[in-house]
Amino acid sequence: MTIGRIDEQQLKETVSFHGHWCPGLAIGIRAAEWALQEMGKSPDEEIVALVETDMCGVDAIQYLTGCTFGKGNLIHKDLGKNAFTFYRRRDGKAVRLVLRPTIYGDTGPLLGKLYHKSETQGLSEEEEKTWRETRAAVSKRIMESDMAQVFDFKAPQGPVPKKARIFGSITCESCGEPVMETRTRRFNDQVLCIPCFDELEKR
Hints:
Elements: H1 8-18, H2 23-38, E1 47-51, H3 57-65, E2 74-76, E3 83-88, E4 94-99, H4 108-120, H5 125-144, H6 147-150, E5 151-154, E6 169-171, E7 178-180, E8 184-187, E9 190-193, H7 194-202
């Protein structure tokens, strides 16, 4: 199977990178597909992905688009939304992709119920079978649907993020570990890293 600019080998590599196949990964693959088609792969920091979730699909975006935490062009906002904004620096092109809940069809509540039970009580053999089959069906639907059925396309909620900057390090006066100067806190005339500052605040 080939979708957009992603071929079968890349799909296999993405699954291997993430560790398993699931609807969440399929969502990220489709978001990455759109970014590759409309903006191209990021050679360095040219393309920026801002993700509003830490779900499985973010691994697909990292692997396929070239947007990574290490380069500073994959930015995570912990908002709990299946929403992904892609920016292209050279011309300011930017679009926010928001997952359409209808892509789950009528299986959303069932998946939620089975997931909760698997985490709290465990599933019966029949429920495990239903869980696997339902996830496979949803994943297939996500992969095979038109892009407009998977995502709503919206304006970004902010300007293109600034490029990553390298800051100097300062030694925390409590634990003695180096910490980026912009991540320090001052307490009783001491320069502290955030964990040490938080620990002192609890006392």
